[in-house]
Amino acid sequence: MPVGLFRVCLLVITAIVNHPLFFPKENGTVPENTEEIIQKMKEREESLRLEQLRLEQEIADQEATQKALEKAAVVVEESKEEKVRWDMWTALSMVIFLLIELWRQDFQEGNWQDIGGEEDDMAVLGKAFKGVALPDKAVLASFYEKRILGTTGDMARMREMVEGFADDLLEALRSICNRDADMEVEDCMGVGSMYENWRVRKPFVCDLIVPFAPPEPYCFRCQTWCSGDSFPPDEQGYGTIKVCRADEDETGCICDKTKLGEDMLCLLHSQVSSTRPSSEMEDLLCFKNTQYLDADQVMKWFQIAVTKAWNRISHKYEFDLSFSLLDSPGALKIKFKSGKSIAFNLTPVVQYENSDVYFISHFPRSSLAADVPSNTHWFLTFAVYERRFIQLVSKTLPANACHVSCLQILSFLHGKQCSLTGPSGLTNYHLKTVLLHLLQARPSQDWAPEKLEARLQDMLKFLEKCLHEKKLYHFFIGNGKVPAELGFPIIFQRAEPLNLFRPFVLRRDIYRKMVDTFHEMLRNMSALINEYTVHIPLAHTNGIRKEPL
Question: Is 252 left (phi over 0), alpha (psi -120 to 50) or beta?
Fold first, then answer.
């Protein structure tokens, strides 16, 4: 108890002593210090306010930055989605393009030369020549028997005679040639209308091609417009022939493709074998300062060789042999003492690889290669395959089929019209190409002999359509439906179709002349046929409807 009272008293005394009112002198400075403290507090408050504003600004900036980042992320996401959508559209467009390309190739392979049937909508002829009608079947049959068959009976005998003489001439040519330096000549082959049995106009001319090859150790390296190298459009259908050594490219050496230093030597090829004098290449019938075969040089060599060969065997024959045409270097004429003559063409060619496609130096009596780009460009001929195709198709047609008759009649009419109005750009090769397309498109039963009138009408319609569109595609080039039995090179089947009428697109004068000649032929058709047709009683033609074109 006393201890507790003592603690209370000590606490009261301490509180009294420490109270500020009991010591006014010692605490007199308190009021002055209070203003200073208040001023400092105001300054501190201001600084805190400023700091708060700065922090708020930083927070606002951070929020704005965050919003900008979020917006950018949204834009990026949208762009990604847009890019995905664009990629999808691009992919879809590519798929559509590929489908169109595949359809185009299928169209070219299946219907690349559009051929309509008897009920097609090609009515150009009907609109332009409503009054033109083909002669009836009886008149056509009489015309064919009297004018065509009556003049083609000597073809087989003439072919046999020309081939026998050509073989003898080429054998003599081989005997006078230097096998170590001159070109090697092979056996000749007959091509064209005389060997496809549809030539009708006299004089009959046999076309023979003679393959030749260079002497050892040289060989020919052939390049075509569809072999991968870039050829301009006006050189489609052409190729070049390079004269090389047989082992030149087998080692894969690059010494002839790069410039070696003067102190460097190829260990595979000596300097003598790698350099070829210009005179040596000219002796190999190459164009000056090149390794490419010159068509003019080849024809000059061939003419000289044929002349020497004839001088060696001329004593065995009782006729004369001469070159008949200056513009056809291979055109030869046999002149008998009786005054009669036989003309034939002997043209040197180069075989393309191991096929029956040939590079031909000159086309006799033809405008197919009238504008050759240069002497080193050779036109490709598919004449051997054309003959084989006609023979192959003929085996599937009815007896006495009318396909050859159609071509003979059309060729005769065209030739007669050209004799009246002058030559045009349209050739017998164009007419044969039309027939080849129709032979592939129509079933075999459509070529029965009694359907001659209808098939002749089809050929005229098809030709009119091609003239109207300025498009007549080569039968073999770009045609994926060539029979496999022919063994036709696949590289030409996969090539772009070759338009035989392309040269006439830019030469409007020739095109106009060609169209006018065709139209005149249609107008004069009945007159031309009746001129060579015996009289047919009216009773034979009654009941036969003339089908207008």
Answer: left
